[in-house]
Amino acid sequence: MKKSLVKGLVAMSVMAMVSSCSHDEGTSIYDEVQNNYIRVFNATFGTPAGDHDWGFDQVMASESRMTRALGDYDNYKGSMQPVEWYQDTNDGWKWKTRVYVFPSAPEFPTSKPANAEYYAGGYKYFNGGTIYMDENTSSHVEVQGYCDMYVVKTGTGEGNVTIESTSKWYVGNVPYGSGQKIRVFVCPGVTLKIPANDAGNLQANVEYYFAPGSNLVCEAKLKLNGTAIYMAGNTTTTVPELEVNNSGIFYNVGTANIAGTISVENNSSVIVNDGELNVTNLYTKGSGRVQNNAELTVSNYTIINSNYNVWVNNGHYRTKYFAYTATSSSVINNCYLKVDEDFMMNIADGTGDFKIDTGGGVLTKNFYGGGKFTAKDNNNGDVNFNGGPFKITMGSRSVFKVTETASLNALASAIATAHYGFEGVGTDYAVFQAKKVIKEGLGEGNVAYSGNLYVSAEEHFAQGYSGQYPYIHYYDGCSEENVYAPGFKSGKPAITIDPTPCNPGFTGVEEMNYDVRIIAEDLSATQGSDFDFNDVVFDVTYTSETTATITLQAAGGTLPLTVAGRNVHDLFNAGETDMINTGAGVTRDPVSFDITGINKANRGRDIEIKVKKNGEWVELMANKGVAAAKIAVKPTFEWCEEYLDIQLKYPKFKEWVQDKDVIWY
């Protein structure tokens, strides 16, 4: 690299580089420089994927990937975590909060063990052991005690066999205090059908595991009262309604279709979706918990109305109505929430808020923030809300977008301390965007805009004066300069947030509409040095299929370096050893110049970057499957400050090197 600490990403096939430049193999340091860089790069990040194009051949994977991968929540980008309230008996029975850990997806056995004993039916008490039953087992199944029971399909016929539980199929009655469970493993090729008589009578301390290729069918409302059901991938669940209560669990990795309502009740009952879940209504009551990591669609109402609810979305969550009328601190959107009609929020003075993590987004037709509105409750009745504030807490580059009307009235006595309204809490700006922002219907209106927040609206109610409505409060650096609407600041904020699977995006105003940003290392990395990819950073704006404008943004390198034949330090009017716009050295305005003779389809790969090493000019390359010295990224990419390793700023970078489909920034 260049300074005292260094690490670099260099990608180049030595043979390709030798053929592309004229060097005398016997005297040139060219091969030595390239080989050393590749060695250090591979030791730091692993061998690159053979098809890795370093961003030059296609748009970033984050634009084509539908959801975050299962388990990504463990390394989520922001600082927001679900919490639970508990009574601390060692501190006078005080209510406190602690981080809640959702259950992990279990392993799903796919066949019965060799030592399993055949169970022919009838009453039997088990004190441990492993048994199995099949379609030949008597319909009178009465298992008590504790054991592992495998439900299997016999024979070699195609398709699933349906094994029906009847009113005489009783599984349960684990000895109190034994700490044991009955585990029922439904193996591939089996559809377990639960008729109406049994649907409400599943026993506590029983766990059902549906392996890939099995299915669950229920004829009536299924009640999990301390019961756990785990559905693997490639399974289907067909249930009219689902109630989860008394620490029950429904964990779906397959496809689950609930015709009516899912009700997640008290005592820490949990719904986790890692697959596709479709339901008419989803009600979270008491201390019920919901976590979506994949695709969850609610065709009517999502209701959150308890201070102890946990609702966490790490994937795509779509609902017609979203009503949040509690003070829970654990309602968190880490990815994408889409509300087809009305997002309604009205909470009492307290610590409750709706959190949007870094890069996350909400898209809703209308938003009712506090004030007066009518929403459904858990009994499907209409409730008229009157008063109560709202709070939307937003991480860096998150977006809350209202395509029609946002009606605001925080109505909070503690607005000055709680900042009820919209607050940007990240190091970069968040955006609240709406077509119309109006005061609440009866002439009042009260809202706080706080922190790193931009507000962009086609219409916005006018500012009142202190003690009179409507009134806008500003806190933590936010001011009228952050509001872009008629009567406030004209135009749009100078920020553009690209649409992603987690974000609807926001198109603001930038000085230039850059097509691609290129970040590079200057081949000076050594083992243990920092790879920060800021030795040169520049944007490319194509003006035709063969011409472009180059805009230099930063140069953290201290070696002679050229872009398209132009010396970078000279263009910045800086010394050769100056670090520029990287948090160390000097600060300069961006510098632009025009180039010709390139191909727009290459997305900047053919723009020549060279560094002078020991008196020789060496080109920075990015060949497929070989460690890259230059990388194409989106124009919104934030380059690393000096001495900050790219893996510290972007922890998934190493994974991306070995799998180009990983979302790394």
Q: How would you describe this structure to a colleague?
A:
- The protein is mainly beta.
- It folds into 3 domains: 14-65 and 512-658, no CATH class; 107-303 and 311-323; 335-500, no CATH class.
- The two termini are 22 Å apart.
In short:
With 665 residues, this protein is mainly beta.
Mean pLDDT across every amino acid position: 83
Radius of gyration: 30 Å
**Biggest β-sheet: count, sense, barrel?**
17 strands, parallel
Anisotropy-based shape: globular
Structural class: mainly beta
Please give the share of residues in helix: under 10%
What's the structural domain tally? 3
* Unreliable sequence segments: 1-27, 59-78
Q: How many strand elements?
A: 46
Strand content: 35-45%
Count the DSSP helices: 7
Question: Span from first to last CA?
Answer: 22 Å
Detail the topology: elements first, then pairings.
Blueprint (H helix, E strand, L loop, with lengths): L13 H7 L9 H16 L37 E6 L5 E6 L17 E2 L3 E12 L7 E11 L9 E4 L5 E2 L10 E5 L3 E5 L1 H4 L6 E5 L4 E4 L3 E4 L2 E4 L4 E4 L2 E4 L3 E4 L2 E10 L5 E4 L2 E9 L4 E4 L2 E10 L5 E4 L2 E9 L6 E3 L2 E10 L8 E3 L4 E10 L1 E5 L5 E5 L4 E4 L4 E11 L5 H4 L2 E4 L5 E10 L6 E6 L1 E8 L10 E5 L7 E2 L31 E5 L15 E7 L4 E8 L6 E3 L2 E2 H4 L19 E6 L12 E5 L2 E4 L10 E4 L12 H4 L3 H6 L7
Parallel strand pairs: 3-4, 4-5, 5-7, 5-8, 6-9, 8-10, 9-11, 10-13, 11-14, 12-15, 13-16, 14-17, 15-17, 16-18, 17-19, 18-20, 19-21, 20-22, 21-23, 22-24, 23-25, 24-26, 25-27, 26-30, 27-31, 30-32, 31-33, 32-34, 33-35, 34-36, 35-37
Antiparallel strand pairs: 1-2, 28-29, 38-39, 38-46, 39-40, 40-43, 41-42, 41-44, 44-45
